[in-house]
Specification:
Immunoglobulin-like; four-stranded mixed beta sheet; 14 strands; alpha+beta; 3 domains; Glutaredoxin
């Protein structure tokens, strides 16, 4: 009895399969051109019942990157239903596949196979179907070298890395070798300058790519890098020779300074700390404390409190300016114009320092010098320091009050010290320095307060304010000459950045 029932069921199933034969026409579908990464394409196929009886259709099932939609629930003999088909491209270049299934009562599910190739929409016919992600056939000999450089901290550049460069590197696999550098790294910056000279690239950009004898910049990297790699794999062209090191002397100066790193930044800060504006103020503070009869403990508290206030204020101001410059960097024309303006600023004040040196050599009094804090601002600064060193206060209160006054005095002195500080901040934000700008800024500001700490130490050791003031006057011309050299050097570095 059981055997009879099984035979009846099998016969019914066989008959059902004969009654209905639902298939997709055509059985495969693909877009007529490569897809852009992370986009999609749609089309239309038919679901046809070739059998002699009606067929009940189940809900569509999707596999992979394929999707479909149809309103048909039943198909009569010879009837057809329209099926809308979609395929979604991945973020990586290469082929993608999917499958759509429609359950049919009494027969295996009708299956549509969907395939596509992710590339550039303009590359119809250029992308072989057999090429897959990481499976591009390796070239005989060395892989094709693709050099890519981008501006760190740039949202557009990060998108190019994520959506173009990294997918291409995965797609072409062993056939290519990608050499990627950020313009915040000094070595990469110097390499880029040599490549720009070799390829005769003069236009400033946020992204650069060099393949064979071709160079791309900015939007052409997005649009043409894929096609260029394909063309170079088929017909390679030689890269131009790099210029000898002697032709990139400005970049070499950048590189040498970057190798010294924090030490170089601290040295530049120490030169800036000898600025008569800042140096004279701490000498005035020591003289004021000495005249009021404060003891060594109070001298130490006042000197260290003042130096700490200068360091913190300078650092916070510098970090704020660096953050503002990071936004300007994404506007190439504005960033380049600003660098040139600051370079002219540095050169102008460098010339004023040289002029003051010549006046001092001719016997002019210090009040006639040009590059110094205006008299009214000096009076404000001195008034704040007098308030902070009241004879009624103990050493701890004097230290705290001097620190508070130091913040305000530092802001006042920016009218003079900004002559050097602004070009330094611009240099730290320029190509080749960005990755370490924060650490170098701290080193620079530490160097800036070293002369203040040295004066405080000498005063605690018993050196009088008259001797310190005499030392400052005797070496005023030398300090100004060092500042002039520093400013003119900054102007040259900024103009060549």
């Amino acid at each position: 009895m059981r055997m009879a029932r099984a035979l009846i069921v099998a016969g019914c199933l066989w008959a059902g399969a004969a009654w209905a034969d639902v298939v997709f026409e055509p059985p495969t579908w693909s877009p007529d051109k490569p897809l852009l990464p992370a986009t999609g394409a749609s089309g239309q196929v038919k679901l046809v019942n070739r059998g002699a009886h009606s067929a009940q259709l189940g809900a569509l099932r999707y596999h992979g990157a394929a999707y479909a939609r149809t309103g048909a629930k039943e198909l009569g003999p010879g009837e057809a239903a329209k099926v809308n088909v979609w395929v979604n491209a991945s973020a990586a270049y290469g082929p993608i596949e999917g499958r759509i299934e429609v359950p049919v009562d009494g027969q295996p599910a009708a299956t549509l196979r969907v395939s596509a190739v992710v590339g550039h929409a303009s590359d119809v016919g250029l992308l072989p179907r057999e090429i897959g992600t990481g499976r591009y056939p390796a070239r005989a000999g060395r892989p094709l070298l693709v050099r890519f450089y981008y501006q760190s901290g740039c949202e557009h550049c990060a998108a190019v890395m994520r959506e173009v460069v990294e997918p291409l590197a995965r797609y072409f696999g062993a056939a290519t070798k990608f050499d990627i550098g950020t313009l915040g790294d000094m070595n990469a910056y110097v390499q880029l300058q040599q490549l720009k000279d070799a390829y005769r690239v003069t236009k400033p950009a946020l992204t650069y790519a060099f393949v064979g004898s071709h160079a791309l910049a900015d939007l052409t990297v997005n649009d043409d890098l894929y096609r260029l790699i394909l063309a170079e794999l088929e017909h390679p062209t030689p890269a131009p020779p790099l210029p000898p090191p002697g032709t990139v002397s400005a970049q070499q100066v950048h590189q040498q300074l970057a190798r010294l790193g924090p030490l170089a930044a601290m040295g530049l800060g120490a030169v800036d700390g000898l600025n008569p504006c800042a140096f004279a103020t701490i000498v005035f503070l020591i003289a004021l404390l000495t005249r009021l009869g404060h003891r060594r403990r109070t001298l130490a508290a006042a000197g260290l409190g003042y130096a700490a206030a200068v360091f913190v204020t300078y650092t916070l101001l510098g970090l704020g300016v660096l953050r503002a410059l990071a936004h300007v960097d994404q506007q190439l024309a504005a960033a380049r114009a600003l660098r040139l303006v600051v370079a002219l600023w540095a050169a102008f004040f460098g010339v004023l320092q040289v002029r003051d040196v010549l006046r001092l050599r001719a016997g002019a009094p210090t009040r006639d010098l040009t590059a110094q804090l205006p008299t009214r601002l000096k009076q404000y600064a001195h008034a704040l320091l007098r308030w902070s060193t009241s004879p009624r206060w103990g050493w701890l209160v004097v230290g705290l009050a001097t620190a508070a006054a130091g913040v305000a005095v530092t802001l006042i002195e920016m009218a003079c010290t900004s002559q050097v500080y602004v070009p330094v901040l611009m240099l730290l934000r320029s190509e080749g320095w960005q990755a370490r700008a924060g650490r170098l800024l701290l080193s620079y500001n530490l160097g800036f307060v070293l002369p203040l700490l040295a004066v405080t130490g000498l005063a605690i050791g018993g050196v009088g304010s008259a001797a310190l003031a005499g030392f400052a006057r005797r070496h005023l011309a030398g300090c100004k000459l060092a500042l002039a050299a520093m400013l003119i050097g900054l102007a040259v570095l900024l103009a060549s950045a």
